[in-house]
C-alpha cells in the first residue's frame, strides 16, 4: 500500500493572528498580576478589539474619514460614494453620527460592532451610471466620523471609539487648519506610534493656486514627518471639483483589493500592545525550568522515603525491624525547596514575575499534605530477607534492589503531586512570559 500525503496549505496571516491573539489572552490570564494595571487594561482592551475584528473576517476593509471642523469630510464622503448621503450642514459640527457606505455584500455584523445606526447605512450597489472601476472598491466600508474637535463631547467620544477600530484611517485636513495641534498631537502622532495604516488628504485645494496648494502639501508632509508618518503621502483633493479624487479612489481600491489592510490593522494593534508590555519584561530573558528530578528527590528525602529505602535495604540483608509507614514532610523543609525552585525558575525575570510564579505554585503546607497522602497510598514493594545459599552471595544485590525499588515507588508518589502543583504552573507561566515577549518582538519582525 502506497503512502498518501495530503497537501496542507500554509496558515493564512489571519489564522496566525487569531492564534497569536488567543495566546495573548491566555498569557494575560496567567500573568496579569505581573503587568502594571494601566498597561494591563490597555492590553486587555486590545485583545478584545482584535478578537472581535478578526471574528468579523477580513473580507471587508473599514476606512474611516476623520478630521476637524470645516475639513470637508462629509463632502469628501459624498464624492467618494458618488451619492448624496451624509449631507454637509451649515451649522457646526456638521456630523453628529457615524454614517457608513458599503460596497458589495452587506456588512451588518461589522456595522453593528462599529455601532453604526441602521438608518445611517448605505448599500453602495453598482449600477449602469457607475464607471467600470467602481467594482474595484467592492469590500470597502467607508465611515464618515464626527469632527474630532467638536464642541460636543459625545462627538469626540465617537471619534475616539471608532479610530482604533478602523482598518485604514483617512485623515482629512483643510489648508487653513492642517497644522492644528490637537490633530497632530492626539491623533496623527498617536496613529503613527501605533502604526495604524493611514492616508492623509488635503481637501479644498480648489481654494488655492497650484503653487500655494503644493506649498501647503509640502509643509503638511514636513509636519507628518515630525509626527513619525514618514511613509504616509499627502494627497491634494477637492471634493467640490473632483480634483485628485481618481487618485484617492485608486489608493482605496488598492488597499481594499489587497485584502490585507484589516489584518495589518490588527497586527499594528498587537505591535502597540507589545511596546506597552516591554516595560514589564526583561530584555533577552529566557526563563528555564529547574531540574524537577532534583526537587522530587529532595522532597522525597525530606518526607522519609530515603530512610525507608535504607531500612528496606537493611531488611533485605537480614536485619530485623518494621518498615516505617508514617510519613511526615516538614513544612519548613518543603518551603525551602519550594522557594529554591521559584528562585531558579524566575532567574533574570522582573521581581513581579517571581510573585506570579509563587502564587501559581502550591503553598508549602498544602504541598506537604499532598505528598504525605500520596506516600500513604503508594503500593510499596514487599521486602523479605534472603535465606539459604542465596544469602551467601546475594545480600548486596538484594539490598541494592530493595533500596532502588523503594526509592522508585516513593519518588513516583512525590512526583505525582509535584507535577501538577509545581512543575505545570511554572511551565505555564514561562509559556505566558514567552508569548508576551514574542509580542514585543513583533515590531522587529515587521522591520525585518
Structural notes for this entry:
The chain is α/β, with parallel strands linked by helices and 448 residues long. The protein has 2 domains: 59-259, Rossmann fold, CATH 3.40.50; 292-447, no CATH class. The chain is 55% helix and 8% strand. It is built from 16 helices and 7 strands. It has helices spanning 13-31, 37-55, 73-81, 108-113, 153-162, 181-193, 210-227, 245-258, 261-277, 292-303, 305-316, 331-345, 351-360, 364-376, 389-440, 442-447; strands at residues 61-67, 99-103, 121-124, 140-144, 168-173, 198-202, 234-236. Strands 3-2-4-1-5-6-7 form a 7-stranded mixed β-sheet, with helices on both faces. Helix 1 packs antiparallel against helix 2. Mean pLDDT is 86; it is low at 1-11 and 86-94. This is 50S ribosome-binding GTPase. It holds the Pfam family MMR_HSR1. Residues 63-203 form the G domain.
Set down the secondary structure blueprint.
Layout: H1 13-31, H2 37-55, E1 61-67, H3 73-81, E2 99-103, H4 108-113, E3 121-124, E4 140-144, H5 153-162, E5 168-173, H6 181-193, E6 198-202, H7 210-227, E7 234-236, H8 245-258, H9 261-277, H10 292-303, H11 305-316, H12 331-345, H13 351-360, H14 364-376, H15 389-440, H16 442-447
Parallel strand pairs: 1-4, 1-5, 2-3, 5-6, 6-7
Antiparallel strand pairs: 2-4
Helix pairs in contact: 1-2, 1-9, 1-15, 2-9, 6-7, 9-15, 10-12, 10-15, 11-15, 12-14, 14-15
